[in-house]
Amino acid sequence: MKSVLSLCFLVMIAVTTKAQKKDTVITGSIHGNVKDSAYDFVLPAATIAVYRAADSTLLTFQLTDGLGDFHIEKVPLDIPLKVVVTFMGYQPHIIKTTIPKAVAKLDLKVINMERGAHTLKDVVITRPPVEMNGDTLEFNADAFRLDSNAVIEDLFKRLPGITVWGDGVVTVNGRTVNKILVDGKEFFGGNINMALQNIPKQAVDKIQVYQRATDPSQPVQDSTTDINIKLKKGWKTGKFGKISAGAGSDERYEADLMLSAYTSKSQLAVVGATNNINKNAGSLNELLENGSYKSFSGLGSYKPDFRQRGIRKSLSGGLIFRQDFLEGGNDYNNQNTLGGSSKIDQGTTTNLGSTLQTTLLTEGQSQTVHSNNSSVNTQTGMDGSAYYNLGTDKRVLRANATAGYTTGQGSSSNTSSTFNAKNEVLSNNNNSNINTNNHRNLGLDLTFGNQTYGRYEPNAGPKYQLDYELKNNSSNSIADRITDFNSLIDPERNQYFNRRYNNQTASTSQSLEFELTRLERWLLSKHLQQLLQLNIRLNNDATLNNRSNNASVFDFDTTGKSYQSNADLSNRSNGLEFKEKPGIEISRTFSKNFINRYSRYFSFTMTADQEIFFMKNNSEKAFQNLSRNYSNFLPGARIGYNKYVHNRSATNASLIYQQRMTYPGIDQLAPLVDSSQVMNLTTGNLQLQSAKTHSLQLSYNFNTQSAVNPFSYGINSNYSRTANPVTDSTIYDVDGKTRRYFINGGGQTQFTSNLYVRKGFKMKQHTLNLEPSLYYNSNKNASYVNGASSDFTSVSKGFRININYEVLDRFRLKFGEDFSKSTSDQSYRSTRTDATNNTLKFAGSVQLIKGLRLQSSLERTTSISTGIPGNRFTIWSADVTYRFLKGKNAEVRLAAFDILHQNQGLQNYTGGNIIVRSQNNVMQQFFLCTFAYYPRFFTQRSPKK
Amino acid sequence: MIRISLISGLLLLLCAGSPVIAQEKVMRLDPKMARGGTTSKIFETMEFIPLETTKASLFGKIDQLAVSDDFFIIRDASTNCVLLFKKDGSFYKKITGGNAENYKNLIQHITVDVHKKTIYVHRNSKPMSELYDFDCNLIRKDSAIKDKYATTLLSNGYMVARHFYARDNKKDSAVNRVSIYKDTMLTKGLMPLNSFGGPDAGTNMITTSTMNLLRSENDTVVYMSDFNEQLIYRVTKDTALPYLRFIFPLAQTVPPDAMRDSLGKQRPWEYFSKNPAYIYSIGNTATLGNYFLFRLTSYGKPATMVMNLKTGNMLQLEKVSTDSTTCFLPFTTGNEWQNEGITQIHEGYLYCSEAASLMFNAHERNMAFRTVAYPERLEKFFKKGKPSDNPILIRFKLKDNL
């Protein structure tokens, strides 16, 4: 551990001392101001480069500041120098000079730049780097000179007021950016990094930042911050991607493919990946981001997962596309778009592990289960979706269709022994399982409504929106399970099962939501509207679910050597659930505005819903033929507070009270009891009642809208209480078997709270972001253990901090710590169990020379729980990446994973009255060499002759 | 080429000599060609005057400003008050108009007579005008002056007022867009308009502009323009004659029938929000020495222009960058809607204002990136003031021969 920390410090020192190498020479300074000679503008972000005149060696360079000033230090004295001033659209200005030792400071005064000869006088207008265009803040991309391979993310890091946080969130003057669009449209499904890390900076005309009112008709002027990246004419087409392959020790391999193309109306991306190093892409987005030209590989989420149990070989791929039928459309109020995506994923996971689980019973009593398990599972999944969006100023229509199919095969085996507190064996159990399954799902989602985008219409009628969703699922599975239970307490309790399960289930669910807002304009006269100033909204949610299940269960007859039908477990059943929930919401907002100072809004809302729930189950088993209906009145209330201090800060707070119902299902009321589940038998309860939960949510957020040092903090807390939740009464038999009965418990209380702070510092090229947070969760549940009333209380509290430090593209360091302590109390025991977990993460990236980058990540985990040995390990990985070729689009990477070889797959868990320690096969140390090529074509079209 | 036609047009204006010009001159103007610069290059002087903030003197923004020898007289619509501040920025007294949310209470405009030291307060409620002295004592109320939206007092004692006229003119008769008063007596109506039955009736082609009237250095003359007009009139106590007609680039010109089609007619602001480049109004027009000042209004952003009548040079104040001579502090003359731009001209000085919060934001950036030596008044303001204080009054003088 110490050696690891030392290494990190060495890296930091190497970066900071690199710039200090030239201190041995006595130096002077040069300063001046750069302007447009014709129109007398200052030119911010002009480049001043100082060369040694003799051999044109670049000595140093700087960009002018917002007022066109520059001040360059550490320039050699008494040698001929060449100072070259450049700015887009202007002829370079060259000054030959020397700084005499006696003077030491050279004042170049005002440098007047002449416009380039190829520019057309009436067409090229020099825009200031930043300007307000109405409500939109615009950054002129050409005013910021960057490397020719720079991408938009490099530009963002230089824009004042824009902060790219360590977790990828982008804020502008402290406000979180909701969307980043390209020419008014989502880019490859709204994937921010696809745009930021691939589109070259020189393709960008301007970056527009604007506030979009969430609903201009509402009195509370809440808004979201969006960014639009406007591309230059002639740069609307691009193709980019990544092709890579790598191999390493222990027969490890990986290969990735991402090819994308876009025009002003179309977008298409195809991705593929295969590996056996537990790199799992949870979504298409991750595969797309992995192919980004500028992705900071190693610090993103698509990387080998050393915590994953088992080793997985995977093959995945997909595509995403979008076609706009309107030229110049946008995603707000001028859209006619067809798009979709599909993903296929196939993987085989091999799992080997052992578990030690201790269940705490009454004082001094406990049962411990040692088990070993192994499994091999192969799963292939395909899913796709297609959407159509039609949006105008007045109407919106969205249709989204989804389809998916998965198929899998697996086999597993498990052997376990149960001991008492004196370490005496109580029972042994062996299980094996072979299964195949397939699952199909289809879905359709439709939304239709009117909207008043971008305009406030005091006389417009009510606004409506209709949402309809249809889902259809079906699945088939066949499983063979063998269970062999031996009791060392009473051999009469021994059991053996060899059972085959053949299940087919199908379900269809439909939901229809309807919402009507601004109803006060219909219901109240104009005079009453002005007098009461109420907002009235009606909504109605209706859901209908149908399902059918056909279970055929067979027991193996050892005499006849064949499977015989098990009449108790074989069953056909179908069920229906219907929920209807009309509701009304009435709100009133009080506002106070003081021009150029603040706008303040207090809103009070009352809601009233009536929820009607009906369920019916028909089955071949008579005890499962039942129906239930419920009707509940669910009131709610909300208080909201918003304050915007002009140019300074924004505060949002809300307090929400809600009620919701949960209803017991057929699996809790009258499940079929499978006797082969000897270690865990569950029985239903026809007397179960529905449970009502009261919840209170508090949220407070503050952020300063500062361009220099953004700062925000907030707290989000949630308290809920359920008087009679469905819980289980558990009986632990003498030989380790567990029997559960569903009951309505004595009550459950949950409380969660999270306090966070975000602070950013930007000083020239340096960015530092700090994100500490505290969290607290508590859960209290009343239940029964071995017939006695028991209260379970578990509390966990923790502290988290993430620190991100960057020096533009040259150096980046991420530090994170996550410390948590949790305790569990059971009312029937005087002792308490607790667990402490601490994870320390370092990740760093440094550019050693241009094109050569060293990256490293380290994660130190400490996990200590009562009654089991502590778990401490460090996973340290590092890689060296070299980019070459003119466009820096070829790459070779040498990587080493789990260098210290400490990943043993140990995990601890404590919850309720259970303590678990498990060990699984996990990825361990290996080395990998990968080659990648990033094809990039961004055409600048010449005008047609 | 553009510059030559500009100069020749302007020279004709200047050399005309007589204050009465029978026919307007046409000037082609591309606002994009206007220059910028730095404050040290453009302004002879620039002074920031913090206005004292107390519970009594707190106000929103400067909707209208008048300057006398002793006072700055400010009308603020958000607090519905008229406030008097001494020349050093300290608060003197105020006239309160009552609850600003009650439409009838609203003070629409004030007319200040710096010689008689009186303030005419024009309100929505009847009687429409109240006369106060500079100690904020009510002298009398009268209903003789019916025009309340924009007025200015000429040095010869005549008051020029914009006259509100209805878009749906139901009578077949002319309506005068400008009224001239002398001591509350209506003496003349100028700029007649008869829209009855015409294609523009009921449209926003005919809308009273409420933009402030600035009195020029030659203070018997007012220059003004109406809504959706590119024509500037030269108004005296007797005449209102076309003075200057602008022709803008096509991309910035409102099409002739725009206000007659359905969107322009029913929802003109939505029409202009979809066409933010269109210049739909010219205001704050005045002459100052060799300079002609005016403000172009579009939905995108207003632009304050300064035209040198001798050289033809065009300057846009929004393109001027602040530098060390102005302590790197902002001065906004029209970049945002909550700023009226140049609100007054007095003895060669121009006046505008800036929100205290923006001054503090600039001060924060100064502290992060540079060392600035502020004048004593500003030093005190940043030390003891708050971002929620009263706006800062900015007084500046243009250099000659820009």
Question: Mind explaining what this structure looks like?
Answer:
The complex is a heterodimer of chains A (945) and B (402). Chain A is mainly β. Among the domains of chain A are: 2-113, Immunoglobulins (Immunoglobulin-like, Sandwich); 130-236, Ferric Hydroxamate Uptake Protein, Chain A, domain 1 (Beta Complex); 746-920. Chain A has a 26-stranded antiparallel β-barrel. Residues 1-24, 118-126 and 216-221 of chain A have low confidence and may be disordered. Chain B starts with a helix and ends with a strand. Chain B has helices at 2-15, 39-42, 262-266, 268-274, 356-369, 376-384, and strands at 25-28, 35-38, 43-50, 64-67, 71-76, 81-86, 91-96, 107-113, 118-123, 129-133, 138-142, 151-153, 158-162, 175-182, 185-193, 222-224, 231-235, 240-247, 279-288, 291-298, 303-308, 314-321, 344-346, 349-354, 392-398. The longest helix of chain B has 14 residues, at 2-15. Chain B has 6 helices and 25 strands. Chain B has a 5-stranded mixed beta sheet with strand order 2-22-21-20-19. Chain B has 402 residues and is mainly beta. In chain B, a hairpin with a 4-residue loop joins strand 6 and strand 7 (91-96). Chain B has one domain (2-398): TolB, C-terminal domain (Neuraminidase, 6 Propeller).
